[in-house]
Design goal:
alpha/beta; D-Maltodextrin-Binding Protein, domain 2; 2 domains; two-stranded parallel sheet; 10 strands
Length: about 325
């Protein structure tokens, strides 16, 4: 090894402890790889505000939407590994997108999981006019319908789409997928019954369930939603092991020093335990997690394997 190169490596190793000791000494950028106002952005803003108070430095939200979360996540994969560029990214960008399309990063190689923040279970709903109230009734009605039911989604390859595909396959149903460009147009066709089923985040559906326009058929998570305790999980209703939940977690560039990662994890965990943040996230229908780097990495790996099977079975692709 030439002397300048060796000196550079030594200098980098010496600099890491110093970096960790003074971190953070200026603003942190938290990239949200989705547009403002969506569920990822809402979770990020709750987290950023609480982390700002904990770290004593501003955690600034930077929305970088595109390619189902891939574009913003890639910014972090290629950022300087100093802890000042992070992303609050999702199941879609980490566990689903690599099975649907070529992505410019390998999360195992290019990203360091910091903390799994929340899980947000999908809710299965049907128009009230369909006259079904639970999973067995829905399955029976779908099997009795000549040609089968249609199900909507927020787009091909989305959590909404793949959750419904997993339900269709698990229940042994023949159904036709109708892809929309987001939640609003999908709901516009679900409410009058032009499609018969939709999986979507609970917080988007609650007003329509409360009004009686939609019937909550089942919760995609492993536990019931506290604000709708009478709605059982799908697993409780004859499909054991069924789980369809979006999730959001903080990631950093892979080479970020371990001490810096730990400071970020601790700050985020403290933010999640704070009363106002917990209340805000619970009101969104999110289950607060807090899994650290190793557990979060194992969870991404298990989710990647699960959704890869669903993508393969569905034939979905974004290429």
């Amino acid at each position: 090894m030439r002397l300048p190169a060796a000196l550079a490596i030594v200098a980098a190793l010496v600099a890491q402890p110093a970096l960790a000791q003074k971190f953070p000494d200026h603003q942190i950028r938290l990239i949200v790889p989705f547009p403002p106002g969506g569920p990822t952005d809402i979770v990020a803003r709750v987290l950023a505000q609480a982390m700002t108070e904990s770290l004593g430095q501003t955690v600034l939200i930077d929305n970088r939407a595109g390619a189902g979360g891939v574009n913003g996540t890639d910014i972090v994969a290629k950022a300087a590994p100093d802890g000042y560029t992070l992303a609050l990214t999702s199941a879609g960008a980490l566990a689903i997108a690599p099975s649907l399309q070529k992505v410019p990063y390998d999360w195992r190689r290019d990203l360091k999981p910091v903390i799994l923040v929340v899980k947000a279970p999908e809710m299965m709903v049907a128009p009230a006019s369909l006259g079904v109230s639970n999973v067995p009734e829905f399955i029976a009605a779908a099997k009795a319908k000549k040609g089968g039911f249609n199900f909507g989604s927020t787009g091909t390859g989305s959590m909404s789409h793949l959750s419904a595909e997993m339900f269709r396959s698990t229940a042994g149903l023949e159904m036709t997928h109708v892809a929309y460009s987001g939640a609003a147009p999908a709901l516009n066709d679900l409410l009058p019954g032009r499609v018969q089923m939709l999986f979507l985040d609970i917080q988007v559906l609650r007003p329509h369930i409360a009004s009686g326009a939609l019937k909550a058929i089942g919760v995609g998570g492993t536990t019931r939603f506290p604000q709708l305790p009478d709605v059982p999980t799908i697993a409780e209703q004859g499909l054991p092991g069924f789980e369809a939940a979006n999730w959001y977690g903080v990631v950093a560039p892979a080479a970020t020093p371990a001490d810096v990662v730990e400071k970020l994890r601790a700050a985020a965990a403290g933010a999640l335990s704070a009363g106002p943040a917990r209340e805000s996230l619970n009101n969104l229908g999110a289950t607060i997690m807090g899994d650290g780097p190793d557990d979060f990495a194992r969870y991404i790996a298990s989710e990647s394997a699960k959704w890869a099977e669903v993508v393969k079975a569905s034939g979905a692709t974004m290429e």
